[in-house]
Amino acid sequence: MSQSVFTLAHTFDAPKESVFAAFTTAEALNQWWGPTISRNSVLSLDFRPGGIFRYKMEGAQGTSYGRFLYHTIQPHDLLEFTVSFTDADGNVVAPAFAPDFPLGVRYRFEFNETGDKTKVEITGVPENATEKNLAAFNGLGASMKVGFGGTMEQLAKYLESVSA
């Protein structure tokens, strides 16, 4: 099985400085980050290369936790980070809903502005994945598109609210 790549693009009616800024503060992330089927909250944010963003997701299926480990931050243009599920203490763990899912997925968010719109192109690649991990990742691809799509819609609503 070959290495899988997750891709998604979303265009926002906002300048890329505003879209990028929504990723940089706990206050902003609390308003939009995470699946629409859960209540999400920022536990901590250290927005710098090597820093970590920890968050909590509460929903009908229970409580889960996640984190970003930031790699590259190029203001207004690029974010690269590894997303992992964690336990309540921030230790990386497999998600309960998919025990074979990769322990880390490296994401690249590219911000490209055309006129008064910003297109965010997202790619994600499992890190250090076994064949089992890749199979689990591939099996959840459609669900990930729905989840990220909902998150991007929440970001669009947040951007509308702060520009109004």
Description:
- 27% of the residues lie in helices and 40% in strands.
- By secondary structure, it is an alpha+beta fold.
- The protein has a single domain, classed as 2-Layer Sandwich (Alpha-D-Glucose-1,6-Bisphosphate, Chain A, domain 4).
- A seven-stranded antiparallel sheet has the order 1-7-6-5-4-3-2.
- It starts with 5 loop residues before the first strand and ends with a helix.
Beta-strand fraction estimate = 35-45%
The tally of helices reads 4
Amount of helix: 25-40%
Rg from C-alpha positions?
15 Å
Could you tell me how far the N terminus lies from the C terminus, measured between alpha carbons in angstroms?
48 Å
Question: What coarse outline follows from CA principal-axis ratios?
Answer: globular
The third-level CATH topology is Alpha-D-Glucose-1,6-Bisphosphate, Chain A, domain 4
- Classified by CATH, the class is Alpha Beta
Main structural class: alpha+beta
CATH homologous superfamily identity: START domain
Compose a concise summary of this entry.
The chain is of the alpha+beta class and 164 residues long. It has helices at residues 16-21, 26-32, 131-139, 141-163, and strands spanning 6-12, 38-45, 52-59, 62-74, 78-86, 105-114, 117-126.
Short descriptors:
4 helices; 7 strands; 7-stranded antiparallel β-sheet; single chain; 164 residues; Alpha-D-Glucose-1,6-Bisphosphate, Chain A, domain 4; 27% helix; alpha+beta
How do the strands and helices of this protein lay out in sequence?
Elements: E1 6-12, H1 16-21, H2 26-32, E2 38-45, E3 52-59, E4 62-74, E5 78-86, E6 105-114, E7 117-126, H3 131-139, H4 141-163
Antiparallel strand pairs: 1-7, 2-3, 3-4, 4-5, 5-6, 6-7
